[in-house]
Amino acid sequence: SAAAVAGKLADIATGSDTGGSIRAPASFCGLIGLRTTHGRISLDGAMKLAPSFDSFGWFADDIETYEAVGKLLLGRDPHQHGLNRPLSIGWLDALVSGTAEATEYTRMKALAASVIGEPAQVEYSFASFPDELYWCFRRLQAFEAWQEHGDWISSGERGLGPGVDERFAFGRAVDARTVATEEARRLAFRAELAALLGSHGFLVLPTVPGAAPLVKSAPEQLQTYRERALHLLCLSGLSGFPQITLPLGSVDGAPFGLSLLGPSGSDVALIRLGRKLLDAARKA
User: Fold this and answer.
1) Of 134, 160, 188, 205, whose CB count within 10 A is highest?
2) Are 58 and 90 in contact (CB under 8 A)?
């Protein structure tokens, strides 16, 4: 669906984001993509993957269209406070994958700072380390996916592709004690992130580590990229907070997005910030 919009075959396309399936394709295709606050827009009638993570989103290649769709789908924000306190966390910035990516991300952040203010550098203060948050997401998402689809997968040969079969098998192996531990970690992280952002704060971060990996990349290279990307993408999933990716950069001619992650219910406010940034980029 992202490719259809990027190829000018459609004005918008909708989808769901469990681990990054709106944000990552949008970044790869030079599109705008918002993972909405979890539960803000109903997914009734859609196929579930991991229900406590599944969130609605859509793609468009211009902010005017994106904002028009947002008005129809979102209405007024329950989050009535403006977002005016940009924040940055060093370990998130460090997840860009190379020198060219780091240079472009620095440029995108500078553009953002000229419009929304210089992000305040925040010391990492969550009780869980980044790798623990990554594994928290992986375990809970895989467990829920197995609960939803395990019976069907187990009932016959389904021809699942490389990596997919292994990820479902991983979910099958997650036990109840691990789920309880990771659910407690997730709740603690959500509270910590909510306290960090407050009513007016939002994180500025790379959407993914860089441009889309090359199709000729070796399987181990793709897996390394995927794990690095999920370290960035899992924060919105674990918290349920909204995140928008904006097509502000490129690496070697391929798109690379900048993200803004806000408090629960700040979906419309994020789109409005996105409009300011994209308007500034047009004039730059």
Assistant:
1) 205
2) no
